[in-house]
Amino acid sequence: MQLHFTKMHGLGNDFIVLNGIAQPIALSPAQIRALSDRHFGIGFDQLLLVEAPRQPGMDFRYRIFNADGAEVEHCGNGARC
């Protein structure tokens, strides 16, 4: 699998940003954990996924996953990126 991503840093945390509009992305929690590994993966604190909107009038959908693969509601440092 090939993923195009951008790696960003904010206040000591690092993130990868995936554009789910330009490329189809379906990652399991195990795949997210593998990607977050700093020795064998990309290494990051959180994964930020931009997806196509699900409701009219919205520009995009924004999802956040911790390095353990769990989806979370928000991330201030990640939103800055």
How would you characterize this protein structure?
Helix content is 16%, strand content 33%. The protein has helices at residues 29-36, 76-80; strands at residues 5-10, 13-19, 46-51, 61-66, 71-72. The chain has two helices and five strands; from the N terminus they run ββαβββα. The longest helix is centred in the middle third of the chain and has 8 residues, at 29-36. Strands 1-2-3-4-5 form a five-stranded mixed sheet.
Which of globular, elongated, flat, extended, rod-shaped describes the shape? globular
- Biggest sheet layout: 5 strands, mixed
Mean pLDDT: 91
Provide the gyration radius in Å: 12 Å
The percent of residues in helical segments reads: 10-25%
Q: Unreliable stretches, pLDDT < 50, 5 or more residues?
A: none
Helix-strand makeup class: alpha+beta
CATH-defined topology: Diaminopimelate Epimerase, Chain A, domain 1
How do the strands line up in the largest sheet? Answer: 1-2-3-4-5
Question: How many domains would you count in the coordinates?
Answer: 1
Order of SSEs: EEHEEEH
Query: For the record, what CATH class applies?
Result: Alpha Beta
Number of strands: 5
Strand content: 25-35%
The CATH superfamily label reads Diaminopimelate Epimerase, Chain A, domain 1
Helical run tally: 2
CATH architecture label name:
Roll
